[in-house]
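Cross-posting from the modeling subforum.

Setting up a comparison between two proteins and wanted a second pair of eyes on the formatting. Protein 1 (sequence, then structure tokens):
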Amino acid sequence: MLNLDLTHEQLVALAHASAAARLERHRHQTMDVDDVLAMRRLAMIGDGLTHMAGNGAINTVRLGAAETATLREALSEWLEGVERRGWMRDDDREAMPVVRQVLEACGGFAGALA
């Protein structure tokens, strides 16, 4: 179980990045059952982050091993995609350093699964 105490700014950035990653990952893909389940898991995590960001306060996010892996992978993919793309939307520009900071502070969440 991973417990993260996240600020409002961090919640907003992670929610943005997870939603963008979900869209990019599944945009032009024919999906099988596993893909649909992965998309739904990421949607659930992103929706939870968005909901928690709505109160404007610090929140503790608790993620199990599967959710931690899903979020870590999506955030990493999103960061790589934004950098590879060569251009950024304003929301991406604001979220990118925050997402990178959260991933680095958590060691990419690597220690959370041990």
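Protein 2 (same layout):
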Amino acid sequence: MGLIFAAFAQLSLVFYPDSAPGLVTNGDVLRLAFSITLLLAIEAEAQTTLRDLRGVNRMLGQLKDVEVERAALGERARLSRELMTAWRRTCGWPSSRPGDWRPCRTSGRKAHSSVQRS
């Protein structure tokens, strides 16, 4: 649309050159219409870009929340592994392989006998 205004403004300037510098001609009006159309198109594009950026920022916020949640879950898993390892060592279980499981009877009896002696 703006290019049509610009083309007609140029044609008007070719066919009807400005003879008096103070008068407003139809070429001037067409150039003004072209400038306004161009500015409106730039503004519409800027609004579309801003809307897209806002959507991307919302998605980044959601991704950040998911990343924080994933880090928290990873930390919980690490702590649970450490607690399980400490508990196994306390009970006398050296590993979590099924053939290596030993009950806590020996350590429990030692603790029970030490309590009875006191």
